[in-house]
Amino acid sequence: MSQNTIEHQVENASGGEFERTPVPQSKLKSWKSFIGMYAGEHAAGTEFMIGPLFLTAGVSAFDLIVGLLIGNLLAILSWRFLTAEIAVKNRLTLYFQLEKICGKKLVTGYNLANGILFCFLAGSMITVSATAVGIPFDMPMPKLTDTMPNGLTWIIIVILIGAVISIIAAKGYDTVTKAANWMSPFIVIAFIASGIVALNQLGVNSFSDFWNIWGEGSEPFPGQTKFTFWHVVIWSWFANGAMHVGMSDLSVFRFAKRARAGWASAAGMYVGHYMAWIAAALLYAVYLKSPEALAFLNNGDAPPVAPGPLANNAIGVFGIIAVVLAGWTTANPTIYRAGLAFQAILPKLSTAKVTIIAGTVATIAGLFPAFAMKLLGFVALYGFILAPFGAVIVFEHFFHKKAGIVKNYAEKTNLSFNKSVFWAWAISFGLFYFISVQFDVFLSFVTLPAWLLCGVLFLIFSRYTQKN
């Protein structure tokens, strides 16, 4: 039997998505495929929210420009030397890889939490797209303090957008990457155009004028956290912590031919998380000079952050379309990831069906603006919760021989609940969450210590339990 015939049978058995089998050689993709996906996903809907939210946090020019430069580099290195390195060795989804280590019962709880958190993130991007679609209908825009839907028009628009995005995501990995490749150039151009127009509207004629937009920083808006240089560095590093150090993007890079495809994440970090965040912040800086925004500030309220109107003010219809597509290209792969998480819990259902379920949950979440308006805090929280599980995979992969432990222990011993993993995560999560709450420490600051502690405890507990 030829290798192609074997791989064809594997593909048919797995439904074409290889949820529980290694990706065969014939389905591997070049680094170019990942550039489009990362640029599309990270120069996207979250950027229209996060850029303005940095301004509400009172960042200075140095903190923003230099802090983002360093933080995004650390994220790229994490993708390249951790996520992609492990992904091309095993070619498994995060969920199946964890099942081999943790056992079926334990990983079910993780998958449920992972899937739901990803649905909430995708929901916030549906919210972003809805702020653009609602402009022609004169829809009231959500405020920074809003939590509930603000009208029937909002509900209808969110449901329609969610349905379309879910259907695209349910088509599978190839469709998700193709959609990103088609849309990302348009979105990137829109961000560049928005930034240039905003600079003109702000009267920027020199680098010093540009620097003075943020200057030495300011007090945060009501209800927002003050961001310093280290807030920007650490937050931007772990904004996608669940995806790189948390290993979620094993599900993406398992399709890569070589680990160097991890460098493609730079297209997302420096086009999206650098240029696009700054461009979106400039759009909000223009809005803050408007009579409407000044009225909010004079009343002691934070002006709303609605990406649709901000982009429309800069580049018109082109901006509206860009915001719709930007929300789409983030929600699409996020719903796809959530679908894989749910599929690991419900293996008898096809990936398409569980992705529709994930899309439905995301759409419901999108009805509530709070997920988008509190995006800085929410992203920090979901990274903190999920990232330590990635440490289990990383520490086992690189140190299992030195630690003297068996790799994929749950699979080899038919263990359904690996207590070593559970207690490593529970102790690291509980300890550092307590520190964050008790001493008012920004959650992103304790993500790395929690990740490291979880990995070390896993090796120690595994050595002890396996020895006994």
Give an account of the 3D structure:
By secondary structure, the protein is mainly alpha-helical. The protein has helices at residues 3-14, 31-42, 45-56, 61-90, 94-102, 104-133, 152-170, 173-201, 207-211, 229-238, 250-253, 265-287, 291-298, 307-315, 317-345, 351-366, 370-373, 375-403, 409-413, 419-438, 447-467. Helix 6 crosses helix 16 and helix 7 packs antiparallel against helix 16. The longest helix is centred in the first third of the chain and has 30 residues, at 61-90. The chain starts with a helix and ends with a helix. The model is unreliable at 1-15 (pLDDT under 50). Keywords: Membrane, Transmembrane, Transmembrane helix. Residues 1-22 are annotated as: Disordered.
Features:
mainly alpha, 468 residues, 21 helices, Hydantoin permease
Write the layout of secondary structure elements.
Blueprint: H1 3-14, H2 31-42, H3 45-56, H4 61-90, H5 94-102, H6 104-133, H7 152-170, H8 173-201, H9 207-211, H10 229-238, H11 250-253, H12 265-287, H13 291-298, H14 307-315, H15 317-345, H16 351-366, H17 370-373, H18 375-403, H19 409-413, H20 419-438, H21 447-467
Short description:
This protein is mainly alpha-helical and 468 residues long. The protein contains 21 helices and no strands.
Count of β-strands: 0
CATH homologous superfamily identity: Hydantoin permease
Q: Using the 3D structure, state the CATH architecture.
A: Orthogonal Bundle
What's the pLDDT, averaged over the residues? 86
Q: Which structural class fits the helix and strand makeup? A: mainly alpha
InterPro entries: CodB
Protein name: Purine-cytosine permease
Organism: Flavivirga amylovorans
Keywords: Membrane, Transmembrane, Transmembrane helix
